[in-house]
Amino acid sequence: MKTIIHNIGTLAGILPKDVRKLEGSQMNTVECIENAYLIIEDGVIADFGSCDSFCSDVAETMAAHGHVNGRGPQSGRDLVPATSEQKPDSETQYIDANGGFLMPAFCDSHTHIVYAGCRDGEFRDKIAGLSYEEIAARGGGILNSADLLHETSEDELYEQSMVRVREIMAMGTGAVEIKSGYGLTVEDELKMLRVIKRIKETAPLTVKANFLGAHAVGRAYKGRQSEYVDLVCNEMLPAVAAEGLADYVDVFCDAGFFTVEDTDKILSKAAEYGIIPKIHANELEVSGGVQVGVKHKALSVDHLEKTTDAEIEALRGSGTMPTMLPGCSFFLGIPYGNAKGYIEAGLPVALASDYNPGSSPSGNMRFVMALGCIRMRLTPEQSFNACTINTAYAMGVSDQLGSITVGKKANLIITKPVPSLAFIPYSHQTPVIDRVILGGQTIA
Ligand code: NIG
Ligand code: FE
Questions:
Q1: 302 CB within 6 A, ligand 1
Q2: Among 89, 238, 315, 388, which residue's CB has the most CB atoms within a 10 Å radius?
Q3: pLDDT tens-digit profile of 401-434?
Q4: Distance between CA atoms of 149 and 194, rounded to whole angstroms?
Q5: Which residue ranges of the chain lie beneath pLDDT 70?
Q6: 125, 283, 325, 359, best to mutate for ligand 1 pocket (most atoms within 8 Å of CB)
């Protein structure tokens, strides 16, 4: 199956094959071609370039065969002219981008989108003035979601989660990392991870699974945190590894949750199974989580609302991606991570949504990109790179996704005609996304 996208106003986010992430001043630019075409073959970017004569040839071919703009998996067939001597390849679909932007679909390297129900009751507590920590200390928060999840069947959890998966795909997300962590017992953590596996197998976006047994101490272990850590190490991790359910392991290393020592213990155990960490650190306090993450060669350390120069120094020269979650800062009213400071120090930065029922009930990566600009003062180019190639790196898929590169998976967004790259985060509520293509197929 071949798809030719022509009449692209701006093809944005072009990178050479070997680039896996951008750091420091490399984040300041987004390479573009104006007036471009792009060809997809078998779900992969096969070629792209400047239109020149190519697009007028395409337009002539389309006119000669009475083609209409293809939409949906069937449209390739619709486009085949009934009778024609010059019958083009019947497997070729033509898409007119109408002068819009064509860019890589967003990657979202940090979410908790598999959960049951929601926490709209706590939203009222929050509005009334309770902090995230106060809600958690009253037995709400993550434990509230764990109770709901326990009551929910695996099938029902899958259906509820797929509503959110479809929602984020329609908003342009082409790859998502999903964490467990609302189970907090061996059986319920496995239930969550099996749901994530099913999403991986059935949804057209790329999915990575992250085992977050150490998200909170399960209710049955109240006051016995070290015993719960032993449960994570000695029962949960072996069971998860035996079923091959986790690409990554996570720990909520923060004040009131898990200590650096707990984290070290869990990550050491995970290493025995070859599972790489991506961890929650420095959301509520400067927790030491960055340093323990770097020690264990974490792929990313996430949140970082609280940071000192020591964290920047710890990350320098490491392969660990500092990842910030501005949707969480927005919703909880806590500080935003110092993304600009990290970039000025020569480091890379990724942005992700943290989509979850307690601290960030939205998976809209375009809004994340906008918050990167509006609240973290990143330039549109820096924020674009943080939401594409760098967040792809933070979930281990930047060899296949996150840029316009021949050979990468064709997970793409086409926008309506917009005046500039800056317009995309600037007009953040205007519905500019015209079409989302995942694996070469139009899905929205
Ligand atoms: O990344 N901080 C820890 N975990 C999530 C929130 C989970 C929840 O409250 O349900 C986060 O913000
Ligand atoms: Fe999170």
A1: no
A2: 388
A3: 999 999 999 999 999 999 999 999 999 999 999 9
A4: 13
A5: 53, 65-90
A6: 359
359 C-alpha to ligand 1 centroid (Å): 6
| Most informative mutation of 113, 180, 356 for ligand 1 (most atoms within 8 A of CB) | 356
Task: Indicate the angle between helix axes 186-202 and 142-150, nearest 10 degrees.
Answer: 80
Nearest Cα neighbor of 418 from 10, 115, 83 is 10
DSSP track, 129-186? T--HHHHHHTT-THHHHHHHHHTS-HHHHHHHHHHHHHHHHHTTEEEEEEE--S--SH
Is residue 353 in contact with ligand 1, taking CB distance under 6 Å? Answer: no
Tokens of 275: 């599972």
Of ligand 1's atoms, which has the minimum distance to the CA of residue 132? Answer: 9
Contact 325, 352 (CB under 8 A): yes
Q: How far apart are CA 193 and CA 236, in angstroms?
A: 11
Give the number of the atom of ligand 1 that is nearest the alpha carbon of residue 357.
10
Give the pLDDT score at 66: 63
Helix (H) or strand (E) holding 81: none
Question: Is the CB of 177 within 6 Å of ligand 1?
Answer: no
Q: Using DSSP bridges, classify how beta strands 2-12 and 32-41 pair: parallel, antiparallel or unpaired.
A: antiparallel
pLDDT at 196: 99
Helix (H, G, I), strand (E, B) or coil at 193: helix
What pLDDT is attached to residue 90?
65
Predicted pLDDT of residue 71: 52
CA dist., res. 168 & res. 184, Å (int): 26
